[in-house]
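User: Predict the structure for this protein chain, please.
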Amino acid sequence: MIIVDQALKARHEAGKPVRVGLLGAGFMGRGIVNQIVNYTPGMDLVAIANRTVESAVKAYNAMGVENVKIVSALGDLEDTITQGQCAVTDDPLLLCESEHIDVLIEATGHVEYGARVTLASIEHKKPMVLMNAELDGTVGPILKVYADRAGVVITGCDGDQPGVQLNLYRFVKSIGLNPLLCGNIKGLQDRYRNPTTQESFAKQWGQTAHMVTSFADGTKISFEQAIVANATGMKVAQRGMLGYHSTAHVDDMLDLYDIERLKSLGGIVDYVVGPKPSPGVFIYATCNEPIQAHYLNYGKLGEGPLYCFYVPYHLTVFEVPLSAARIALFRDVIIAPLGEPVVDVITTAKIDLPAGQTLDGLGGYHTYGQCENSGIVNEDNLLPMGLAEGCRLKRPVTKDQVLTYDDVEPPADSVAHRLRAEQNAYFAKSKMAATV
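Assistant: Here is the predicted structure, written as structure tokens:
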């Protein structure tokens, strides 16, 4: 932040703002519009793509921007931007192709849509900030392979818990400590919540019931911790994570974890329900020698052997524009997979489901997601939660049963399913080559 704010200030004073294209004008997207338009000098939101263009126009208008034009062709988009107008379209590929957009923000949370636009952004060498842990946790590693080949940056965002954890992880490592646990703090966890139970809360905040359900039933936090695992090499201690409940502060939960087990696993990702500071993130780390330990104790972090570092908040849309600036100005990746998947999110039945049922996917009535180490996912042929939507059950499944590919018929012509198959094959081949 200390570097980014000054860099944006310089771009503002030079009259050369970072030009941003936004994909999605929903709850998160509208917040990003407000933040860029009203509070981020040195950055211009030049275009929004949304399935319903009227919603994109309203997102601009609500923030006081009236000079908005609906476009449907690349030439019209480019002319609109160069003339100083803001463009809206229902064709996200136009934003990927534009020469007058420096960086894209994907804020839909839809796996299939996100897969299509991210591939297009890579093809046109357009940097992308993903507010889409579901996409990243399903096919992020193969998208990173594509991006590296193209020499383009694809990253998750700051402000959401995974990015905040990676900022903290980088800090802890930079001062010479060894992170052994990346943690996410929740206020509620109930795997059987559904859009009906969450409808009133969703209306209160202007969100969709499916989005709020994915928060409540543990699916969202599973994707968040999966992408942290894939960015750090950490695993989960057990299927679904440990998920301790407590009313204490995370400073006072150190004894819940076996340090030798954490070390044997190479560190873990996890979540806790109920403790302070909610809704923040935390890292437990060790130090390697007594001089560090002495100064950590002097700094009121205790006597070890585990030390707690935390951020008491995550500010989502407030920090996403800074992520776009980090990429556009410094090519600084916030969070991305190191290589092959370490942790996946698997599909689990929320209720008894009959043969022939077409699954409704993320934040729905039928399934919830939980973390599992990728080796087990591959060995047991488990169905990724990010690919569940649209799959048709071949046979009945019972509540809390984990689904496999053998249980379902996947939808035809799915980019996300194709990418997942390619991801599995690519890293299996890489692993085989490494053992030869």
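The chain has a mean pLDDT of 96.
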